[in-house]
Amino acid sequence: MVKKGLLVLVAGAFLLTFGNMALAAGEEQESKSEEVKPHLPEIQEEVKENKTFEIHGGVVGFYQGSTIATVEGDRLKTKFGPGIVADLTVTYRPPLPIFENGKFFVRVHTGAGRGSDHNAGDNLFANLNTLADNSDDFQTDFDDAFWLAEAYYAHEFWNGRFTFIVGKTEPVVFIDNNDFANNPNSQFVGKPFVNNPVMNSEDQLAPIMAATYKPIESIAITALGVSSSHPNAPLESSQKSIYSNVFDQPMIAFQVAYTHSFGELVGNYRVYYWNAMYHHENSAGDTSPDGWGVGISCDQMLTQKLGLFGRVAYSSEDAFDSDWFWSVGANLKGIVPGRDKDELGLGVAGLKGTVGPDNLGTEFHTELYYRIVLTENFALSPDIQYVADPLGNSDNDGIFAGMVRAEFAF
Q: CATH no. for residue 200?
């Protein structure tokens, strides 16, 4: 009860302080600061457009820190620090008839700084700063800090009913999407509100083939196969480059998505399965010939200003330290008078541990952000997170983390 009461007080102070900031921020503008990594609907929209060449870019700067906490006997010191991520994207349709229904996409990425994850990230089932996932501290031996993150070709057939993609990108472009909890650039930054954290531990920017078929306008069926470096293999010697033996025990995934509209109120409902097909071992020493999971991701507009989202997923308990995962939350637009483009997001999530005797409980995450759209190209977001019972152990201290995020896009 003390933890819950403290969280409510902090959330109330957060809303009051930054609600007043928003009132003083000036006339609202529609923001162009969008995720530079397109998901499948955006890919299909880009293919339909007639533009031959487009170039876009974005920079997200942040300052994040977390409180002192003791987790599994380790004293995590307070860590505050800045960080930055930047992307440059190019889409190109060669002026040839064969490419009339296709488009090339390239994204170059760089990043530095981990914020709260510098100390806390490795001591949680789900980290606190998804923005930093592809920054320099996280690069493998096979990629530099400034590297070609994505490069693929997408082509539509049969008047858009079938889309085929081949090249280099990641599985979460195609599965586990969510309109309100999927974009760390402008929405939640905590991992359990961006994607399924267990599946995300297998997610890599790697050689991939994917296809989507729409038998009717409201249903989309997606399948993919992606090369894996075997990141969760028990021995480092069992890992490999994503560019070598790309068909050796890859990750595969399937998703069925249903879209329905109640007037102008759109809802999306997705069911997916994934399997990383190499040998896994969790922290308890349990082994599995592969790592697999199933999940559901939903989002629904209830009014023009209020949308709800939810996820629930199960993963093999013999392969991972957490099996059950869930998250729920809300997105509210224009809650401050005169600030119609501003957004507030609130989410609660849980990850259940599988490693006894101490880590069988649930790690709870709560996150709250308020996104202030200042100009057409610039937005500012204060964000606060709280994690109770890290690693599913009630004896571990809770962790508070705060962030200020600035987005610029062109």
A: 2.40.160.180
Number of domains in the chain: 1
How many whole angstroms separate alpha carbon 307 and alpha carbon 49? 28
**CB–CB of 299/179 below 8 Å?**
yes
Find out whether 250 and 206 touch, Cβ atoms under 8 Å: no
What span, in angstroms and rounded, lies between the C-alpha atoms of 9 and 285?
Answer: 41
Q: pLDDT tens digits for 42-80?
A: 666 666 666 788 899 999 999 999 998 988 888 887 778
Dihedral angle, C-alpha 151, 156, 161, 164, nearest 10 °: -40
Residues (pLDDT < 50) of the chain are 1-30, 34-36, 137-139, 142-146
Model-level pTM? 0.84
pLDDT tens, residue by residue, 291-328: 999 999 999 999 999 999 999 999 999 999 999 999 99
Domain holding 301, by residue range, is 2-409
Q: Which neighbouring-strand residues pair with 80? A: 65
Check whether the bond before 357 is cis (ω within 30° of 0): yes
Tell me the sheet residues that pair with 82.
Answer: 63
Q: For residue 20, what are the contacts with CB-CB under 8 A and spacing of at least 6?
A: none
What is the DSSP pairing of strand 280-281 with strand 287-288? Answer: antiparallel
